[in-house]
Amino acid sequence: MSNGKQTAEKHIIKEFLLLFWVFFKIGLFTFGGGYAMLTLIEDEVVDKRHWVSKEDLMNIFAIAESTPGPIGINTATFIGVKRFGILGGITATLGVVIPSFLVILLVSFIIDLVRDNHWIQVIFMGVRVCVVVLILKAVLSFFKSIKKNLFSFILTAASFLIVFLTNTSIIYVILGTIFISIIAVCLITYRNNHKFHMLGTQEYYSEVTGKKLGKDEYICEKACTENNIKISREGEK
Fold first, then answer.
1. What is the mean pLDDT of residues 90-100?
2. What count of other Cβ atoms lies within 10 Å of the Cβ of residue 76?
3. How far apart, in whole angstroms, are the C-alpha atoms of residue 69 and residue 85?
4. Which of 65, 56, 94, 62 is nearest to 77 (CA)?
5. Residue 15 exposed, middle or buried by CB count within 10 Å (0-12, 13-18, 19+)
6. pTM
7. Alpha-carbon gap, residue 66 to 176, rounded angstroms
8. Cα(120)–Cα(122) distance, rounded to whole angstroms?
9. CA of 134: how far to CAs of 28, 38, 130, 146, 152, in Å?
10. How far is CA 103 from the centre of its chain?
11. Whole-angstrom distance, CA of residue 212 vs CA of residue 205
12. If I label 151, which of 118, 125, 128, 202 is the partner at 20 to 30 A Cα–Cα?
């Protein structure tokens, strides 16, 4: 019994250390801020570790972007909490923050020595190119994963044009897209519920026909049924 408990404790400690190491590695090798970090996070927690699904990670990214603070740190905290609760969130956050803190601490002591060094400038030029590639990969990954429709394309294009052509703060653009999305979802839900109510309840239809259908399948089949009945009655007349 004692051996089993010790084994379980060792396993938990190992998992916490792995969580810390994963985000420490991400924080250590990420240049260009939180958006460049997203590609590495996806590679580690979705492709390699399978801690979350890609769809869940997209939702985490959306929440992390919508809440105060850097998106990379918010994402690490969220995934840590999802894995091991509050202690997991603290562990993941420390893992992703400590590398940056140590690097900045080191650079602050040697910045005057390397500021005008030609080779250091060349290195940072290469880093900038890498940052662009990482951000572009994150954008393409987002685009492939999200559900796309005409409304999302219009909203994305409008947001891009507002940010690109005007001096409007990105904060107002984010709040505006959230507000418009909420209104759109409310209108669509109202329309679907109204149509659902007009066709009768799903439970009654399932009881009469003996079919167990999803909401969308029910609406489609009931509408087709009523349309066929209407056509038959018109034919009889």
1. 90
2. 30
3. 20
4. 94
5. middle
6. 0.58
7. 12
8. 5
9. 15, 8, 6, 18, 24
10. 28
11. 9
12. 202
